[in-house]
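I have been asked to look over a protein record a colleague put together. Alongside the sequence sits a line of tokens, each denoting a local backbone shape. Please read both lines and tell me whether the tokens look consistent with the sequence. Take the sequence as given and treat only the tokens as open to question. I have pasted the whole thing underneath without changing anything:
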Amino acid sequence: MKHTRAILFTYTILLLIILLAYSNSILNGFVYDDASVVSNNPRIHTIANIRHLLTEQYFAIVDIGKETAYGEASYRPVVTLSYFIDAMLWNAQHWGCHITNIMLHIGVAFLLFTIFRYLLQTLSSAFVGTLLFSMHPLLTEAVNGIAFREDILATLFCLAGFYCFIKKPFLHSRFAKGAFDACHGLLYFGGLLSKEMALSYPLIFFLLSYSKKIPLKKNIGLIVILAGITLCYFIIRFSILVNPEKTVHLYPGGTVITNICTMITVIWIYIKKLFFPVMLLVDYTIKPCYSFLSFAIIGTILIIILSLLIAVKSRKTAVGLGVLWFYAALLPVSNLIPLSNIAAERYLYFPLIGAALIGGILFTIFFSFNSRWSIVSLTAIILCYCIIICMRNADWKNSITLWKSTIRVEPKSARAYSNLGTDYFEQKHYKKALKCYLKCISLRNSSQDNYNLGNCYRKIGDFERAVQSYRAAIAIDPTFPEYYENLALSYIELGMYADSEAAFQKAIGYGRLDDTLYENMGLLYDSMKNYDKALRLYKKSLELNPNRPTAINKIALIYIKTGNTEKGIKLLLEGVDKYPQFVIFYKNLGTWHELQKQWSEAIFYWEKAYSLTPEDSGIILKLIKLCALADDENKRLFYHNKYVEGSYE
């Protein structure tokens, strides 16, 4: 009874410490890849879409930009299923998704404590090992990133499989043992369908059996199940449900030798971060390494050899298991098959269990010499970890704070500048976005970066530089129709209509012929005052997509320009009724009434526009002017003060 109370008390302490460390992450927003899998993914709110998790529709292209239906490049349906559950429980709100991640992390900690008790045979060392794992700052990426939940889930399933294994000897009937083996296999399969890193599980399972001196012949049935599930997974993963759009990556430096050298430097980074988890990064800039003759590589090789020798010498102990667990769990993320990211802190979620196992053993040894100092040391370590975790959680508050913190630690991260620029662009801070994109291109001159830069120049009205940027993007990759389409729109602003028409034809040639293209081509002929052709194109756009308010607005303006004012105004009013959040209808109605010198009506519509976009300085300036013309001094002062209070680029 006393032992049971001690175990329950330990679980409670683990729960409270983890909640304390990660409590300030609950109100963090969606960052990094969270948008594609949760916040910008309406499919997870419809239960009927769950059926697509088992079909090719999982990888269907649903949006411009070649984004898969569920935002995943690899087949990970269990993770996607968890987002459906988030939608049911929390309506996929950011705080609810973060609570889910924290609860999953706590679940991993609880399972790990049970397994460490089995491996270490002492409550104190199992508690310390679990505490060192669950509170290690390297895990903040997996816990904070909703899209990185995959690492937690894969680990959770694998540990649950281990739990079935260690409970199996306590069963007496053959049927019950067979049921536990089947459950073990299903849990392993769940881990594989969460993330490929679970492929290291069978190897770790064999190591665990060997360290506990359990003959494999006693688990032949389980071994057959694990082997069969691994084979089924490979068939599903590489033959049946394959992402047709997945990018093929190359080894760093292009050769196997440079890949080995580079990955040794990555292991060196992991080892350093293991002992000194500071200056954490969401994007590691790893340059290809072409030679074994460097201090970092030679030192890392010596560390690996020495640790493996220790593991072999103590192969039937928890120390040997901990060392081999760490390296075995790293194998799936060791770039044997080229990865898009060759280094990431989330990759250490499963391997870190091996290091925590060794930590628990060392604590037991240290405790036997001096209990007071061991407790003081452990408390100091956990306190430091807690502070680092809380600070790192603050970095994950939103995308801007995350990428700014990345740039502070790694100023050569092109991805950080690119993503920060995109965040500023979406918030309409175009000058800030411009600086980020220019810095990004100085580090990584890709077609997408030049395209982003061109979009930024267009927004600030520098169409000549926009054209230069789009041309640079096309020179690097001439196959994207969006590049030509935006180039064509920039040509329109410069009055280069023939060049615009040619660019549109290029976009069509590369497969772009949809409602957006028809509307944009209509804009070309609208600018050329060929209103009949423009009207046909606008109507074609609306025919392809009846829910396109921009096309309705342009058709209404064509009617007004060609003298059919009554029809045009009627269409704008219909647009207001159908799309009350679409601000351009109010602006155009306000402008028309202004031209008629109907000041009160003009103010009414511009105030509607202001209520939708109060941050738009142009609307405020227009209202100041109209209120002055209408001799409404109170309103004029009100909007004048709003303009003074605001901060506009």
